[in-house]
Amino acid sequence: MNILVLGSGGREHALSWKIAQSDSCEKLFIAPGNAGSSQVGENVAIKVTDFEAIAAFVKENEVALVVVGPEDPLVKGIRDYFESDVDLKDVLMVGPGAAGAQLEGSKDFSKQFMNKHGIPTARSTTFTAENLEEGLNYVSSHPVPVVLKADGLAAGKGVIISETNEHARATLKEMLVDAKFGDASSRVVVEQFLDGIELSVFVLSDGENYKVLPEAKDYKRIGEQDTGLNTGGMGAVSPVPFADADFLGKVDERVIKPTIQGLKADGIDYKGFIFIGLMNMGGDPYVIEYNVRMGDPETQVVMPRIKSDVLELFVAAGNGTLDQVDYELDEQAATTVVMVAGGYPGSYAKGAAISGIDSVNEAMVFHAGTKNSDSGEVVTNGGRILAITGKGDSVAKALENSYNGIGKISWKDEYHRKDIGQDILKLLD
Ligand code: AMP
Ligand code: GLY
Questions:
Q1: How many A from CA of 288 to the centre of ligand 1?
Q2: Which atom of ligand 1 lies nearest, measured to the CA of 193?
Q3: Could you report the per-residue pLDDT of 58-70, keeping only the tens digit for each?
Q4: How far apart are CA 384 and CA 156, in angstroms?
Q5: Which residue's CA is the nearest one to ligand 2's atom 5?
Q6: Would you say the CB of residue 71 lies under 6 angstroms from ligand 1?
Q7: Residues of CATH 3.40.50.20 domain(s) within the chain?
Q8: What residues does 279 pair with on adjacent strands?
Q9: Which of 67, 76, 328, 415 is the most buried (most CB within 10 A)?
Q10: Which residue, judged by its Cα, is nearest atom 4 of ligand 2?
C-alpha cells in the first residue's frame, strides 16, 4: 500500500523509518518531511494544514493510509475533511477527527471529559474575561504553586506555574485581558499543582480496542538539571523504571480504559494515538494532559522498541481491527538525545552545514530541522535538529551509544543536554 506521513519533525522521521521497514509498504511519502525522511521515502512539498493539496495528492497517488504527525491538522479537522469526500472517506487515517482532537485542542474540554468520566487529574476551575474578578479572587487564595493553562494550542508554551499568589494574579490578567497567548488564552484553566515524577504513556485506539505502546520519559527544559525555558523536548528514555507492572496496571484501569470508554460514550469515534502525560504521585497516576498524537522526541524511542511490523498496527487502528493484532516489544532500552541549534528555544541561525552523520554506527540519527542544501549537503533548518537514539541492554548502555553518536556529529553552535537519563540511572541504583 501507499502511505503518506504528515509532518516534518524527528517524530515523522522515526514513524517513516519504521513504516518503511514493513513488507506491505509500497510507496512512502512524507509531507513536507526533512532531509532524514527523504532517505526512507519521498518528500512532498505540501503543508500539513493544506487539506486541499493533501486530498489531491492522496487521490493522485492512490494513498491508502495517512498517518498524521502533529496536532494542528487534527484540531483543524483533517479527518472530517477526508470523511466528507466520497473519494477519500475510505482512506485509512491514524488521527482522530476534530471532536476527539479537542482532548488536546482545549484544556477545558479535556478537564470536563476527565471529570465526567472519573479519570484522576488535578482539581481545576476555568475562567474567562467575563468572570475575571472571580478568577483573581480564586487565584489569590489558591495554595501555591498554582498552575495556569491557556485553554487552546499555544505551541507548548501555554502552561505557567506560579510560585506566589501575586504572580498568579498578574499571569491570569495577562492571559485573559492582554491575550498573552492570543485566542488560546481567552479561557484559562487554573489547577492544583501535582508534585511527583512525570512520564508519558502512548495508546493506539481504533475507537473500540486499544494497544498500549512503550512508555517514555521526556526532558522538556533546555538546561541541565531541568532548568531554563521549556522546549519541545530535549531527550527521552524508554522504558521508565518506576512504570512497573503495578503502576501500569493502575494506569490501564484508572486512566486508559475510562478514556476509551468515555470517548465511545460521548459518541467520538477515536482512531489514532492518545499520548497521556501522567504524574506519578506516591504510586498513583494523575493525568496532566492528553495529546492526540505521538510525542517528539518520545517517538524516537518508542518506535525502536517495537519489533513487529508497525504498519499492521496502523492499518488495524484505521479500520477498527486492533483486537486482531498485537506487537512484540523489544526488551532493549532506547534513549534519545536531541541536538539543537544554539539559541533555541529563543532565536537561532539556520543553514549551518552538519558534519559526521554518516560516521555514526552505534546509534540511529533521526532528523528534525534539517534539509538538503542545493549542493546536496545536510544543513540546519530549525531549532531542534537531530535526535540521536541509542539502544542497549540497559538505559546506561543505550545512553552511552546515544552520546558516542553525538560525539561524531557537529555544526557551528550546536547544543545538547549532557544529563539526559541521569535521573533514571539514579533511580536504578
Ligand atoms: P502541558 O503543556 O500540559 O504538557 O504542561 C507542560 C508541563 O507543565 C508538564 O509537562 C508538566 O511538567 C507541567 N504541568 C502541567 N500541569 C501541571 C500540574 N497540574 N502540576 C504540576 N506540573 C504541571
Ligand atoms: N515531547 C513532548 C511533546 O511532544 O509534546
A1: 6
A2: 20
A3: 999 999 999 999 9
A4: 14
A5: 295
A6: no
A7: 2-87
A8: 198, 286
A9: 67
A10: 295
Of the options 3.90.600.10, 1.10.10.10, 2.60.40.2470, 3.40.50.970, the CATH number for the domain spanning 333-428:
3.90.600.10
Output the nine-digit C-alpha cell for 8. 516534518
Please tell me which residue, 91 or 184, carries the higher pLDDT value.
Answer: 91
What pLDDT is stored for residue 269 in this prediction?
A: 96
Is ligand 1 within 6 A of the CB of residue 198?
yes
pLDDT digits (tens, 9 = 90+) for 185-241: 889 999 999 999 999 999 999 999 999 999 999 999 999 999 998 899 999 999 998
R_g over Cα of the chain? 21
Instruction: In the chain, list all ranges with CATH 3.30.1490.20.
Output: 123-192
* Ligand 2 nearest-atom number relative to CA 296: 4
**Quick one: which ligand is closest to 231's CA?**
2
CATH of domain 197-324: 3.30.470.20
How far apart, in whole angstroms, are the C-alpha atoms of residue 44 and residue 15?
16
What distance in Å separates the CA atoms of residue 51 and residue 57, rounded to the nearest whole number?
10
Over range 164-186, report the average pLDDT: 88
**Mean pLDDT confidence for 75-98:** 97
Query: What class has domain 123-192?
Result: alpha beta
Q: How confident is the model at residue 45 (pLDDT cuts 50, 70, 90)?
A: very high
d(CA 40, CA 33): 10
Q: How many other CB atoms are there within 10 angstroms of residue 178's CB atom? A: 9
CB 233 near ligand 2, within 6 Å: yes
